[in-house]
UniProtKB/TrEMBL annotation:
This is S8 family peptidase. Residues 8-101 form the Inhibitor I9 domain. Keywords: Hydrolase, Metal-binding, Protease, Serine protease. One of its GO terms (biological process) is proteolysis. Residues 141-390 form the Peptidase S8/S53 domain. Belongs to the peptidase S8 family. It comes from Candidatus Accumulibacter affinis. GO terms for molecular function: metal ion binding; serine-type endopeptidase activity.
Length: 412
C-alpha cells in the first residue's frame, strides 16, 4: 500500500547558511524522494510564461519560492520523507500546510440580493461612505496595480474587463484565473469597477486589476497557495495585494512571505474575518494572515458606521470599512449585494490605490501612514480593537499635501 502524502511547506535556510550551498533547494528535496519519483516544480516565472498547474492526479507537483528572504518549497511528502527533511542541515523548518477559506458573513447576514436593479454607473453606498468620489479629481488609481488573491476574477464582466490586466491560477486543473465561485469578482468590483457609464463604480475606477486564483470553486484553498500567490505578486510588480480569505492557525512560512512582500514595497490588505467577538474579550478573533503586522487588517462596519456583529476584532485591527449589503459585480456579468469581511477589505485596497495614484513616488509605508492618519474616528478616541484607527477617508488621504506622521501598524 502506497504511503499517503500530505502537503507541507519547507522553509530553507538562506543560501550562505546552508551546508550544501552549491545545491539548489529543489534538488535537495528531490534527493529525499524514492528513485524514479517524478515531481514537477512551478515558480512565478514559469507560471507567468503561460504554464498552468495540472490536476493533482496527473503529477506530483510542487512550487518553488525563489525569494532570498523566504526560500521555500511547497510539495506533498510522506511522513518518512518529512521526518528526514526536518533533520536536514539545509532546512530551517518543515510545517504542515493548512486550509483557508474565502471570508464571508454568516448566512443570517445574507439575504443576498442577486441581480438587483441598478441605474447606469451606480456609485455603491460603501464607496460614498469612505468619501471616494470626492478624491477622484486627485486620482482614480491610474496605473496602480492591485492583485485580488482569492477565487479569481470574471475578467469578461463589462465593469471589470477594461481594468483587468491578467493573472495566474494556483488551483490545479483550472488553467486560467477565471472566477468559478463569484467571491473575488465581487471584491474586484468594489476595488476598481470602471467609470464607464454602466453598472457600478469601484473605489478606484481606473486601477489595474490582476487575478491571483488560490481558492477553488468552493472557496477553499491552502496556505501554500496563498504563499505562491504572494510570491507571484512580488515577482510581477504588484503594488497592492487584496486578501479576502483566511485561516485559523498561524504559519511561520505565511508570515515570512508577508514580511518579504512588505519589505519589497508591496501593501497587503486583508479582511479581519467574521468570527465575531473573541471569547474571552481580551483575546483576538482576527484570522490569518490579517493577524500579521505587515498586513493591514480590516474590520467590518455597516451603513450606520456600527461594527457588524459578525466582524472579527482584536489588537491586530488596523482600519475599518463598509462590509454589510455591499453592491458590486457578480460573476456572469451581473451584480449582487453581499456582506462580509471580504466586502470591507476591498474598500481599503481601492482607497490605497487612489491614494497611491495621487502620491506617485510614495512608499508602501507612506501610503499606510496616509490611510491611517486621515481617518474618520468611530470608536474610542484614537485606536481601538473594534475599528482600529477608524474608517478610511479616501478624499482626505488622497488630497494630503504633506507626508503623514508615522502610524504604528498592529499585529504580531
Amino acid at each position: 500500500m502506497t504511503e499517503k502524502r500530505k502537503s507541507v511547506i519547507i522553509t530553507f535556510k538562506a543560501k550562505e547558511q546552508r551546508l550544501d550551498q552549491g545545491v539548489d533547494k529543489v534538488d535537495i528535496v528531490r534527493s529525499f524522494l524514492p528513485s524514479g519519483t517524478q515531481i514537477r516544480f512551478f515558480n512565478a516565472t514559469s507560471l507567468s510564461s503561460g504554464a498552468s498547474v495540472p490536476a493533482l492526479n496527473e503529477h506530483l507537483i510542487g512550487y518553488d519560492v525563489n525569494q532570498y528572504e523566504s526560500p521555500m518549497v511547497m510539495v506533498r511528502l510522506t511522513k518518512a520523507e518529512i521526518e528526514q527533511l526536518s533533520t536536514n542541515a539545509n532546512v530551517a523548518k518543515v510545517e504542515e500546510d493548512q486550509v483557508c477559506h474565502a471570508l464571508g458573513a454568516p448566512s443570517s447576514y445574507l439575504p443576498v440580493e442577486n441581480q438587483p436593479s441598478i441605474l447606469a454607473e451606480t456609485v455603491p453606498a460603501g464607496v460614498t461612505q469612505i468619501n471616494a468620489p470626492a478624491g477622484w479629481p486627485a486620482s482614480q488609481g491610474e496605473g496602480v496595480r492591485v492583485a485580488v488573491v482569492g477565487t479569481g476574477i470574471d475578467f469578461n464582466h463589462p465593469d471589470l474587463a477594461a481594468n483587468y490586466q491578467g493573472g495566474v491560477s494556483f488551483v490545479p486543473g483550472t488553467g486560467t484565473p477565471m472566477d468559478d465561485n463569484g467571491h473575488s469578482t465581487h471584491c474586484a468590483g468594489t476595488i476598481a469597477a470602471a467609470l464607464n457609464g454602466a453598472g457600478v463604480v469601484g473605489v478606484a475606477p481606473s486601477a489595474y486589476l490582476y487575478a491571483v486564483k488560490v481558492l477553488d470553486s468552493n472557496g477553499t484553498g491552502s496556505y501554500s497557495q496563498i504563499i505562491s500567490g504572494i510570491d507571484w505578486c512580488i515577482r510581477n510588480g504588484i503594488h497592492i495585494i487584496n486578501i479576502t480569505l483566511g485561516g485559523s492557525g498561524g504559519s511561520a512560512a505565511l508570515q515570512s512571505i508577508c514580511n518579504t512582500a512588505w519589505s519589497k514595497g508591496l501593501l497587503l490588505v486583508a479582511g479581519a474575518g467574521h468570527a465575531g467577538a473573541p471569547v474571552p474579550p481580551a483575546m483576538s478573533s482576527v484570522a490569518y494572515p490579517a493577524k500579521y503586522r505587515n498586513v493591514i487588517a480590516v474590520s467590518v462596519i455597516d451603513s450606520a458606521n456600527a461594527l457588524a456583529t459578525f466582524s472579527s476584532r482584536g489588537p491586530e485591527i488596523d482600519l475599518c470599512a463598509p462590509g454589510v449589503n455591499v453592491l458590486s459585480t457578480a460573476k456572469g456579468g451581473g451584480y449582487a449585494s453581499w456582506s462580509g469581511s471580504a466586502m470591507a477589505c476591498p474598500h481599503v485596497s481601492g482607497a490605497a490605490a487612489v491614494v497611491w495614484g495621487s502620491h506617485r513616488f510614495a512608499t508602501n509605508e507612506q501610503i499606510w501612514n496616509l490611510l491611517a492618519h486621515h481617518v474618520d474616528n468611530l470608536g474610542a478616541l484614537g485606536w481601538d480593537t473594534n475599528f482600529g484607527y477608524g474608517r478610511v477617508n479616501v478624499d482626505r488621504a488622497a488630497e494630503a499635501f504633506k507626508p503623514a506622521p508615522v502610524v504604528a501598524r498592529k499585529g504580531i
